[in-house]
Protein: Hcy-binding domain-containing protein
Amino acid sequence: METCVFKYRAETSPPFFFSLLSILNMGLEGVEPSALIRGFLAECGGYAVVDGGFATELERHGQDLNDPLWSAKCLISSPQLVRRVHLDYLEAGANVIMSASYQATIQGFEAKGLATEEAETLIKRSVDIACEARQIYLQRCAKGCWDFPHGDKTTQRPVLVAASVGSYGAYLADGSEYSGNYGDLVTLETLKDFHRRRVQILASSGADLIAFETIPNKLEAKAYAELLEEENINIPAWFSFNSKDGINVVSGDSIAECAYIADSCDRVVAVGINCTPPRLIHGLILSIKKVTNKPVVIYPNSGETYNAEAKQWEKSEGKTGEDFVSYVGKWRDAGASLFGGCCRTTPNTIRAISRVLFDKASLDN
Ligand SMILES: [Zn+2]
Structure:
C-alpha cells in the first residue's frame, strides 16, 4: 500500500513520518490498528485538530452547492478552490483534513451523465487534491513561510488525509441524511452494494484513513463495518454519527448501540459525532465512552439550523458560531481526543480550537 504522505519523508524527515506513517505504509497486517491512531495522537501532543465545515466553506467562497452532488460538484467545476479550502484549514491548525468525497458517489456522477470511469477518477481525484494541499503546506512550513499556530516551528505538524464517505441519505439528498429513515426496502445488502466500489477506490487512493461521516442509523454503521472486513480494507477508518437529541443518533437508534458496532470492528480506530449542535456533544461523548476505549472524535456544526424552505441557516438555542469553542475544554475533559467543526464552521473556528488545545495559557484558564 502506498500512502501519499510517505513520499514526503525524504524531504522532511520529521520523526513522525518514521513512526506512524512507516507503520501505515505497511498496511494493517500485523499491526493493531488502534496503535496507529494512538501513535498519531501522541505525535500531535495528545489531541488532534480536525478540519472544519468543507461544503459550507466552499459556499462562503461563493459556490452555489444547491445540487445533488453538493460539495462534490466543485471537484468538476472548481478543483482549485477545493485545494484552497484544504490549505486554509491546514494553515488554521488542522492535523486531519477530509477529502471532498462526502457526496461524491459513482451513482451521483452517473446521474449527471458521467461515465463510470470518469466518476471513479473524480472520487480518487478528491484525495489527490487533499494530498496536494498537504504537500504545498508542508513545503511552505519547511521554508518557514507560515507560522505554526502552536508548538515548535522546527517540528513538522503531523497531517493525515482522511477520505470522506457520506451516507446513502446524503446521496439521496432527500432529507434522510438527517432522519436516518431509509424505509423498509433498504437492507444491509442495499447499503453495502451502494458503498462498496467507492470504499474500494478510496482505500487505494493514498488516503491515510477513511472517515465515515454523519452516519444516521445502526444499519449503515453495520454495512460499513461489514464492508471493511469483506473487502479487507487496509487503511483505518473512523465512524462518526449525527444526533438531534443528544441521546440517540438521528434515526432514533441508540448512540450506545451504534458506538458498539464501531467498537467491535478492529479496523475502526476512532468513534464520534459530527454535524450535531455543540450543546448536545458533551452528553454524547459520555455515552460513547461507556461502550468504547477507542479515541473519540467530535466535530459539531456551528449550532445553527438549516431551514430547508427558506434555504438558509438560522440561529438556534445554545452557543453558535465561534462561541462554541468555549466548550472544547469540557469536551476534552469528558474524554474526546480529536476536535474539529462541521457545517458552517470556518478556518477561524479551527484556529480557535487549536489555540484552546495547545495554548498553555488557555488550558489553565
Ligand atoms: Zn456537517
The pocket of zinc ion is lined by residues 275, 301, 342-343 (CB under 6 Å). Residues 116-142 form the longest helix (27 residues).
